[in-house]
Amino acid sequence: MKFMPSLQDLAARVSLISESSTLKVFADADRLRREGKDVVDFSAGEPDFPTPDNIKKAAIKALDENFTKYTVASGTPELKQAVCDHHKNLYGTSYVPKECIITVGGKHAIFNLAQVMLDEGDEVIIPVPYWVTFKDVVNYAGGKCVFVDTDEREGFALHASAVERAITPKTKMIILNSPSNPSGALFPRAELEKIFRIAKDRGIWIMADECYERFLYDSQPFSLASLPDAKDTVLVAGSLSKTYAMTGWRIGFVLGPAPVIAALGKLQSHETSNPTSIAQKAAVEALRGPQDSVASMLGEYLKRRDYVVGRLRAIPGVTVHNPQGAFYVYPNVSAAYKKGSTNSLEFAAKLLEEEFVALVPGEAFGTNDHIRISYATSLHELGRGMDRLERFIKGRLS
Ligand SMILES: Cc1ncc(COP(=O)(O)O)c(C=O)c1O
Fold first, then answer.
1. Which atom of ligand 1 is nearest to the CA of 247?
2. Which of 53, 127, 334, 340 is the most buried (most CB within 10 A)?
3. What pLDDT is attached to residue 134?
4. How confident is the model at residue 213 (pLDDT cuts 50, 70, 90)?
């Protein structure tokens, strides 16, 4: 009999994950653009700024010096030291290179952490709204997501009491992402400290996703790993993607106890091997070189946040909190949902179809009443997109 490949041949675990909804919106918008439509894109989760010149030059130098071969699979000692020093300078932590692994972006760090930490049935607490990937990486590792609500009226604040109520004997890990994608919420430090204590007392791990650590508008960066005795229960997942506008370079890292890092290293040695050699050289320059580009990007994001929040607040029926960090705003637009199709998917699909504005429906992040707008785009584009969004919502309300 002739061999016919079929979808049924796929490993069962593939059905545990779905395509990233943010990347799907990106693909739909791209299709419309290729059809010649004038699309305004609020879906991108990446800085619109170029990678700073000093970082690009370091990569060019690495190429010129033929730094183009395999490196140690877990990353160069030079970059690990730079990550540890950087974390120490920002937060006063004391990691050493054997407590650090360099990964192929922050997503890789989180995926591999789930793979080495979770057994079948382990429960992982995830605050809602959540970044899409958390759910899928936990599911793919055989874990079980336990979602905890945040308080929208308090800007999606996470309360330690809610986390505590969700804990069961099977809880293995809590994932915290502050400032948050998609809400831009910053979890209050006092609550984070309480959550840390609750977790520590019960032997529960915390994965702290610090992807947006430097994009804070009204407060200083804080890392859970800087709390006394945090080093043996907090796993820091970091990324250079957003901070240094390096999304395409694919450099992230994990800081954590040496045995966890060794397990990650074992996995990575059979999986990707080292992150790209020249990108690692560029990352050393990003962390050790001048940091003024970070401050200037933050200044731009602040202007854009204020603009978008101001525009949203002027639209009837829309409620929105002021994001404290990252570059997303997460308004509640449910007043403009059509009767009978009360969901953010329909809203986002129609907005793209009728007004050519691409954004991600809240459904992707676990809440149905919201949409995510990324303001990592120029004020000009924000203005055009907000005009269209306003027209669209007013049309649905009338
Ligand atoms: C919350 C969060 N964590 C981690 C990442 C990973 O970023 P990267 O894999 O590009 O380093 C992202 C990217 O969108 C994110 O939003």
1. 10
2. 127
3. 97
4. very high
Contact 136/18 with Cβ under 8 angstroms? Answer: yes
Pair of tokens at residue 122? 């382990």
Residues forming beta bridges with residue 239, ordered by sequence position: 252
Test site for ligand 1: of 239, 246, 254, most ligand atoms within 8 A of the Cβ:
239
Q: Which residues of 5-28 are buried (b: 16+ CB within 10 A; e: fewer)?
A: eeeeeeeeeeeeeeebbbeebbeb
The angle formed by the CA atoms of residues 332, 337 and 341, to the nearest 5 degrees, is 130
The three-class DSSP label of residue 217 is coil
Contact 344, 369 (CB under 8 A): yes
The residue whose CA is least distant from atom 14 of ligand 1 is 45
Indicate the burial class of 224 (C-beta count within 10 angstroms; 0-12, 13-18, 19 or more): buried
| Strands 252-255 vs 328-329: parallel, antiparallel or unpaired | unpaired
Nearest Cα neighbor of 304 from 280, 285, 329, 282 is 329
| Cα–Cα distance measured from residue 206 to residue 199, given in angstroms and rounded to the nearest whole number | 7
Give the DSSP H or E segment for 234. Answer: strand 234-239
Q: What is the pLDDT of residues 259-310, one digit of tens each?
A: 999 999 999 999 999 999 999 999 999 999 999 999 999 999 999 999 999 9
- Residues 213, 238 contacting (CB under 8 angstroms): yes
Structure tokens at 282: 């560029």
Ligand 1: which atom is nearest the Cα of residue 107?
9
User: pLDDT, tens digit, for every residue of 349-359?
Assistant: 899 999 999 99
**Ligand 1 site, residue 211, Cβ cutoff 6 A:** yes
Taking residue 337's Cβ as centre, other Cβ atoms within 10 Å add up to 17
DSSP state, 206?
A: E
Cα angle 343, 384, 299 (rounded to 5 degrees) comes to 100
- Give the Cα separation of 282 and 375 in Å (integer): 26
pLDDT digits (tens, 9 = 90+) for 139-180: 999 999 999 999 899 999 999 999 999 999 999 999 999 999
Q: Which two tokens stand for residue 235?
A: 């796993």
